[in-house]
Design a protein that fits this description.
mainly beta, single chain, globular, about 675 residues
């Protein structure tokens, strides 16, 4: 399958270790980078969370360089990245040995390369209206010469964010049903997203790159008023109730910097990369509970907690590459160090006096070092192409917690092989087979064993002894012209996730991060790009997957949860004028019922329309987005086994419209500076 620059349709090209969704010179480039990623085959979006083959443990990279951002921060960055700067999106379901072993799959956004020198600038603003309004104002600047490539961007965002939950927990032994209605309304008056990238060309064979990016949120303030009614399940009569008032304040600051030296000599290439990252997160919570229980006097309970996280990480790596016509070799080494310090202070109101509670407070320190080596080679022979690699990662972990008292030191070495084989037919078809072993390490936030209380009757608790998940991926693919078929199998040993356990004795719901026994998935997918007219395109992606999880309940018995999950994504693009300055993109996404451990997740669907108009020689751009038009992108998460019986309805304010305004000036063909890789450790922040 060969891409053509004259083609006006997206082209899905299958390579030996990935698929590439080419959007260059297509109507999709009128969208944002975020919209392009959402419409990439094999990528599924649900609740603004990206997944590949139903797995959310993925890495998102730009030009093979990882980003140090949460899903929300990444979304903001990509929403403000012009689709015209995107060349293609790669989906790497089984990453080669060169990539860190952490994570299940990789989504790599390839930006257009530099072609001309000059200056380019853009100012942009966005108005977002859902239940409440949000706004954005920002600018991006680029300046390139023969020696220097400089780019920078800054975005200011503010607004109100809403999430609605309706929780129901049934206690069969007590014959009671607890119903809570929560509206989480959070006000963030200022959020700052910034990025700077530079590259200095020493000569035709050497360059030096430096950059930084970050996100700062001085304050997100939420005031939640949550009524909870308690009913008798025999007669459905209200017996008791309580009201929780939660005043919550969060602030965060993340910063990342990098320095890279790159040297070419003949068929050889040597790269030395260094990364430093810092994250600061602070949360304050003041919770008042007004209790009106049957046969008990009115009572109030108040507690406060202050949580602080400081995280620093550093990594350095060296990569060597040799390539010629039929043979390639890659090898390298990497070292990373992570330090994560957490403090939790808990206070309780006793006889109207706020007192510090050491038995509910905690200090947790986590240190991690990883040393990695890898080697990979590929060979082409006639219609055959093969690639194989091996990566070794040795991990040293040291954790200390004072409440509960936990000390953990462990060292382990893992080997992660990869293998790919592809054969090309005479009729431009291809068949491929690949296998890879991966590891999924827990996020640093999930390793703290202290209890973090949401309210009087629920809290979250991490697990300092949580172990990494080992993932085995096997897939078989077949490509014929624009049709792409794939079948795959995934086995996960000790998958880690957040589960909830209700305690019938204390009426508490504990949200606990832990490992379950194992998980398996069998699946198949197909994709096709249709080109009906020169002005009308359609992209189709469909998949089906059988997924099963084995887990232990509070009664220590083993349970099985399984489901057949299927997904459908349709997206069409139309040019509404001959100059191709007025475009429409419309799409539909459907997700069937899914599972996560003991949880069953209901189906959801989303219908959206995007209009884009360019004026004044394409310097001024107006965009309109209508998302979740029928308000069907919502879900119900439930579990029922042993003595567990609960569900909650979740709506994340997905029905909205957006007005985008952009003005471009300077040399519109200026090249974009190279983006730099962030580490796998950064992705776990």
């Amino acid at each position: 399958m060969k891409a053509s620059n004259s083609s006006q349709k997206p082209l899905l090209k299958r390579k030996i270790d990935r698929i590439e969704f080419n959007v260059d010179n297509t109507p999709l480039q009128n969208l944002s980078a975020w919209d392009i990623v959402k419409n990439t085959p094999n990528v599924i979006l649900k609740n603004d969370q990206l997944s590949v083959r139903g797995n959310t443990q993925i890495l998102v990279t730009i030009n093979d360089k990882k980003t140090l951002m949460t899903q929300d921060e990444l979304k903001q960055l990509l929403e403000n990245t012009d689709g015209t700067t995107v060349s293609s999106v790669e989906v790497i379901t089984n990453p080669p040995a060169k990539y860190e072993a952490s994570g299940s799959a990789i989504i790599n956004i390839k930006m257009k390369k530099n072609v001309l020198s000059g200056y380019k600038g853009q100012v942009a603003t966005r108005y977002h209206q859902s239940i409440y309004s949000k706004g954005m104002l920002g600018t991006s600047q680029s300046y390139n010469t023969d020696k220097w490539q400089l780019t920078g961007s800054y975005y200011f965002v503010n607004g109100k964010y809403v999430r609605k939950n309706f929780d129901v927990t049934t206690y069969e032994q007590d014959k009671s049903r607890w119903e809570s209605d929560m509206i989480r309304r959070t006000v963030a008056k200022e959020q700052h997203v910034y990025n700077f990238a530079s590259q200095y060309t020493i000569d035709s064979l050497q360059n030096l790159q430096f950059g930084m990016n970050g996100y700062r949120n001085p304050a997100s303030i939420g005031n939640y008023n949550v009524p909870t009614n308690i009913y008798n399940i025999d007669n459905n009569q209200l017996e008791s109730y309580y009201v929780t008032q939660n005043h919550r304040r969060e602030s965060s600051n993340s910063f990342n910097s990098y320095l890279v030296y790159d040297k070419k000599f003949g068929n050889n290439n040597l790269t030395w990369s260094n990364n430093f990252s810092h994250r600061y997160y602070k949360e304050k919570q003041d919770v008042l509970t007004q209790l009106n229980f049957k046969d008990k006097p009115y009572e109030e309970n108040r507690f406060l907690n202050n949580a602080l996280q400081k995280l620093n990480l550093y990594s350095t790596q060296i990569d060597y590459t040799f390539t010629n016509k039929d043979f390639g070799l890659e090898t390298g080494t990497k070292y990373s160090f992570v330090k994560n310090d957490n403090d939790l202070d808990f206070f309780e109101s006793i006889q109207n006096t706020i007192e510090y509670q050491p038995d509910k407070s905690n200090v947790f320190n986590y240190k991690e070092q990883i040393f990695a080596l890898y080697i990979s080679s590929n060979y082409k022979w006639k219609k055959w192409e093969a690639k194989a690699g091996l990566r070794s990662e040795t991990t040293w972990i040291n954790t200390i917690s004072d409440n509960p008292i936990t000390k953990n030191k462990r060292t382990n070495t893992g080997f992660f092989p990869t293998f790919y084989l592809m054969y090309s037919f005479e009729n431009a078809g291809q068949i491929g087979l690949n296998y890879g072993k991966r590891i999924d390490r827990p996020d640093y936030n999930f390793l703290n064993p202290s209890k973090s209380y949401y309210n009087m009757f629920s809290y979250f608790q991490g697990d300092a002894n949580a172990i990494s998940t080992i993932i085995h991926n096997l897939s078989l693919s077949y490509t014929l012209k624009d049709w792409n078929f794939e079948t795959y199998y995934r086995y996960e040993k000790d998958p880690a996730m957040e589960i909830s356990i209700q305690n019938p004795e204390t009426f508490e719901t504990v949200y606990h991060f832990t490992n379950i026994k194992n998980g398996e998935a069998f699946g198949a997918n197909l994709s096709k790009n249709f080109n009906f007219k020169s002005w009308w395109k359609l992209n189709l992606f469909a998949m089906g997957e059988y997924n099963e999880n084995y887990y232990f309940g509070p009664d220590q018995k083993q349970y099985k949860n399984d489901v057949f999950f299927y997904h459908l994504s349709l997206n069409t693009q139309l040019d509404l004028d001959q100059a191709k300055t007025f475009n429409l993109s419309a799409g539909y996404r459907y997700n069937s019922k899914a599972i996560q451990g003991s949880f069953n997740i209901s189906s959801s669907q989303n219908t959206y329309v995007i209009l884009n108009k360019k004026l004044w020689d394409k310097r001024f751009e107006i965009g309109l987005t209508f998302n979740d038009i029928f308000k069907t992108d919502r879900g119900t998460i439930s579990t029922k086994y042993a003595d567990q019986n609960q569900y909650f309805k979740d709506y994340r304010d997905t029905q909205y419209f957006i007005l985008n305004l952009k003005y471009n000036f300077g040399n519109q063909k200026v090249k974009d500076a190279k983006q730099i890789e962030k580490t796998s450790e950064q992705n776990r922040i």
